[in-house]
């Protein structure tokens, strides 16, 4: 009898543990948003500020790799509309399929002429493609147009919903990027009358 | 593993009853293993927190000259911070040619022991000097051509920590300032 009871003690009832594990699993699946691969990975500087970025109405300008600028926009409708406006302006036609694909893509960093080619690539190829950044010289300032058209598209979408929210611009710069290239982007924004924007930063410890 | 099969330790009648009981129990170990594996996977592949962001408002670009002419600022309230390469930071208080007592150009380090101490003590001194909480310290940040983005965010962060009431990013450098920032590098 004694030997039997010691054998019984070795078995643990796993039901509760299983319940907890699946509860946690459900929680994580439901709260998760998949990590979108970044077109241009940057190491953001850290700060003690705790403000969070908004989820929608947001355009992110990523600056890294010696002044390369990448453009990213939230919201599928807004992205499609922005692309339409850009294609009108630069006379580059996109099919509906390409538009749909663009609406799901990560940030882009190519001149508008090469965008068609970029959309045609697979995600893995795209990250290896070595995108040169969006042109932002005074002669060929496509970045200005991207930002401008994104704002127009965002306003159109928001007006349809009855909301008056403006597009929020965030600058996500690499910590090692030299100041002049950051300033160049800020100047482009300021030329459009955008004087207030966010700088994306990482989190720093409390007792910095 | 969870359910050890006790085998044929008992008598024939006993064994029959026990084996019936064991059939109703399912070994959950593998299931738990799988669940935790999936939990780990989801934890690692998701971004739990949204990225942090720092709000930055810049003055309107349109009429810089008018602003310069119209606003006269007491030089006792201003501190100018210049950022150079290799995390160099120079600050002076008042005008460069005639700095306020103890405010001559000096190098500082970033962080708690460096520029923050200076900013805090200056802030108090300015408040004592003006006697008006609305007329606090004014900090002018001048990021040099060689300074990097981290320097800019660091100094803006210091502004937020110290709670400087007014600060501005200015891009003009006088020749003396450039000399100060680049000259004594050795």
Automatic annotation (TrEMBL), chain A:
Molecular functions per Gene Ontology: transmembrane transporter activity
Keywords: Cell membrane, Membrane, Protein transport, Transmembrane, Transmembrane helix, Transport
Chief location category: membrane
Membrane topology note: Single-pass membrane protein; Single-pass type II membrane protein
Pfam families: ExbD
GO biological process: protein transport
One GO term describing the cellular component: plasma membrane
Superkingdom in the source lineage: Bacteria
Localisation per UniProt entry: Cell membrane
Stated family: Belongs to the ExbD/TolR family.
Name of the protein this chain belongs to: Biopolymer transporter ExbD
From TrEMBL, chain B:
Stored InterPro entries: ExbD
One MF annotation (Gene Ontology) recorded for this entry: transmembrane transporter activity
Source organism (scientific name): Flavobacterium alvei
Cellular compartments annotated: Cell membrane
Protein name: Biopolymer transporter ExbD
Transmembrane annotation, as ranges: 26-44
Region (Disordered): 1-22
One GO cellular component term noted in the UniProt record for this chain: plasma membrane
Record-stated family: Belongs to the ExbD/TolR family.
Stored Pfam families: ExbD
Native organism taxonomy: Bacteria, Pseudomonadati, Bacteroidota, Flavobacteriia, Flavobacteriales
Any Gene Ontology biological process: protein transport
Membrane association type: Single-pass membrane protein; Single-pass type II membrane protein
Keywords for this protein: Cell membrane, Membrane, Protein transport, Transmembrane, Transmembrane helix, Transport
Primary localization: membrane
Domain of life: Bacteria
